Amino acid sequence: MLKAPGRARTDSTHVLAAIRSLNRLEFVIETLRAALNALAAAAPNWLSAHADPAWFDRYATRPEDYWLPSGKAKRTELSEQTGRDGMRLLADVHAAGAPVWLRELPAVQILRRAWVQQYVFDTEGEVRWRDPKECPPGALRLVSPYDTDARASVKRDIKWDGFKVHLTETCDADTSHLITNVLTQDATVQDSTATNLVHDALAARDLLPGEHLLDAGYIDGPRIVTADRQYGITLTGPIRGNTTAQASGPYSQSAFAIDWQSQTVTCPNGKNATQWRDKISDRGAPIIIVRFSPADCRTCPARPECVSSPRAARREITLRPRAEHEAIQQARAAQGTPEWRERYAARNGIEGTLSHAVHTAGLRRCRYRGLARTRLQHQLTATAINLARLDAHLTGTPLARTRTSHFARLRPADQTIDGAK
Ligand code: SF4
Predict the structure, then answer these.
(1) Over the stretch 145-157, which tens digit does the pLDDT of each residue have?
(2) What is the CATH number of the domain that holds 183?
(3) Cβ neighbours of residue 52 closer than 8 Å, sequence gap 6 or more
(4) What pLDDT shows up at residue 3?
């Protein structure tokens, strides 16, 4: 049933960690509370001797935002009071006379990590709550003392704390569709990072497809080239459009003739670029900067259309390495054709699989805490779906058809989803 090399499709969805979502103030209070609870359970006599009596009022119950002060100044004051309390507890735990194992309690380690992320300690020993811009990036920042693998993320209008799961399944027309890979990562990891990881995992199990259908988040020039060269996979999906000021029109980049052999670029007015420089972009990707002569551009009648900034002395173009450039051009040319649309339409089925996993197996919510257990949960969910599909295949049970609303059924037969005739 796993025909090689068949077709596969991948998509992702967000997964909520098995924790309560906390704002920053709730987070620091809850983190200190969790450390106090852990110490109270592990070393009650030690904590009784070291706890400030005021802590029982401040940390005996879990923080709820509605009883915390609402003004910015008072919230900052409360956060810094919590910071000082946490610092005092950490100092006592790390004092020379304290049992060494106290500082090794996971809740105490988490308190220390959280305090480094949330507070600044100046040279006079004052504790200051970090400005949000001074906090570490989302990929490192803790969001709960009870699940240190969960991360906060945003995708379009969805905000969540937790993880992201990518499901890959076969999608050949003439056989059952089986899930061949499950990739669970923290919520901040971009879909584009998953593309190569999915291929590596499929290659390790000899399950690579010949064609992989993906949405725009997974595809770019480097990934098309890597998938083709390393694994012989054709990536099919929409390439993100050019968003520069000269994305279209008679002086768009595609109107410039490129001779890769001689490293020559000729503009629509017949002038040759005077610079061709290899560079590494701010994101670490190899790029080529091509510049035309200010003498040519200054006197050119097309300059207002060709050079985006009136202050710029000349036209400059940024190119990808040849293989990536050509892959992007080919993909952009193909994706407008009816044949491409028909091939790509098979990708939509993965959304049904994700929806099925969310509604029947609770894929959206972690049952357990931590990335390792969440990964295991997702592997078991995918296995359960595969078993159900195998059963349907072996017993000849027809697959449920995608439901179409009464109104959608009225669409004229010659009109496609995007309204084109
Ligand atoms: S502005 Fe420069 S690059 Fe653009 S068309 Fe004129 S000469 Fe060519």
Answers:
(1) 999 999 999 988 8
(2) 3.30.420.10
(3) 85, 88
(4) 73
